[in-house]
Amino acid sequence: MINSRTIFIFRELEYNLNIEMMKGFLVRLSVYAILVVVSISCRSKIPDKNAQIAYVNDVEAPATGTIRERLQIPVKFTVNNGCGSFNRFVESQNGTTRTIAVEATYTDGICTQALETKTVNYSFQPSIPGTYQLEFKSSPSESIRVAIKINP
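Below the sequence we write its predicted structure tokens.
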């Protein structure tokens, strides 16, 4: 026979089971969330194994510009073979001086084994008037330096 004491025990068991199920769900959810965050953060920090710095040969920068004007500066650089292509600019800034390196990537496969010169535009859009120094890496220890005076 089922009495009120039995019903109370069953409800308490049901309540405890629900709490345990909820705890298990929250633990699993937390583990999945951590895995997703770690996966995304690791993916963005892994460098491309086929990427390397390509040194700049020539820069055709204007001597002047105006604030908020986007200057497109042609930059010529050399890749090691026919499979090399532009990937991105790697930049650091110290005041009005910017140090810029070209990063090239190389696809796997059969490639011509000759040095090739490529051209890509560096986009420069200052928001404050002044004279800016752009230093494009032309070797491990040298740079091609250009000065651009930005007028209001």
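The two ends are 92 Å apart (CA to CA).
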